[in-house]
Request: fold
Amino acid sequence: MTAWPNIATVARREYLVRVRSRSFALGTLLLVLGVAVIAFLPVIIRATEGMLAADIAVTSPDAALTTKAAATLDTLLNAPAGSDAQDPDKAPGFAVKAIEDVESGRRAVVDGTYDALLAIDRTAAGDLTFTLYTNQSVTGPTTLLVRQAVNSIAVADRFDTLGIAPAEQAHLFAPATVEVRWPDAARSEPTRDSSMLLGQDLMAFGMTLLVFMLILMYGSWIAMSVVEEKSSRVMEVILNAATPFQLLAGKVFGVGAVAFTQYAAIVVVGVVAILAQQPVASMVLGESASSLLPEGLSPALLLAFGVYGVLGFLLYAALYAAAGSLVSRQEDVNSVVMPMTLISTLGYMVGVYSATGLIDVHAGWVTALSVVPFVSPYMMLGRIAIGEAAPWQLVLSIALLAGAIVLAIWVAARIYALGVLLYGSRPGARTVWKLLREGM
Reply:
């Protein structure tokens, strides 16, 4: 028989065994649910914010101050985010009421009539002091919102003391105009706003995490599969019908097909959930959901995700199979694959940190490291998402990655050829070097 039928037979067996397992079904279900929740997270957050409501009482020794503070607090708490005026079509989430004295207000908070009581007093110097009586923690949502609102009440009272008219106060509170431009005068495209940067960060993090999980989880599966067959002596029987290279290729392709089947389900559910955001948000929130859609997602980024995901998996999968052939017991697998795990984790962390701004993405060492084959699948996705990867860097990283795959398969095949028949204690570096010299 030729090589391809044997490779296809091994790959088919690996695929069917894995996809029929309960762990695969449960893992796929959990991942799909997780992706759906993340995709609808903006809608969930908006709906949760809409449900935030509280009854708040306001009191002070000065009845006029009480009335004015209650009206100001009501306006500030019920104003939509990013707006200075309350939406007349939106029901207020906070009910603010002026009451006469502190003691009755505290009793009303204790018995649940009010969620909080804001008591206002004035010092001898004329400044306002605030005391919030509530059963919530100091970091509760109502407490935090009231803390923000009382600053405006205090400042407005100081302006009143200075005799500044309300119309002039509004002018003093008006924000300054700041224009943001690119430092390079040749760049004509619009600068990225916060929503676009957030979308790019989320895209970079999510895709890098998926590639990391793809390589780490399914690479370990390949190593465990080799050890299972080796420990049961099935490997010796299989080698009579197929060469070690055919076994290696079959396992990589078979487990790889399982990985991409699972991630195809994830991508499909994610795309459907994103497309369904607008009608779902319209039903739940009664508003257009165009602003909820993630920004930064582009065909180029999806293509890069597919290319680096496939090439990164092939590079590590061959080495995981070779590593698994060096041991005979399941408990030794983690230690023998530790070098690949550490390199993957390093690339993942640097890639995510540089894409989200925790590490300077323009640093020379980050640029150089992003084309290194063993970490480029993680680092280039983040740099592409934020628009910092030059075309020549993409071409160079893919070329080096393809070359590294060829070299890794050659090295893995030589180790695998003798490693699958190696039993006993776990081999050291000298034994691995000997296998490389004496392989096929």
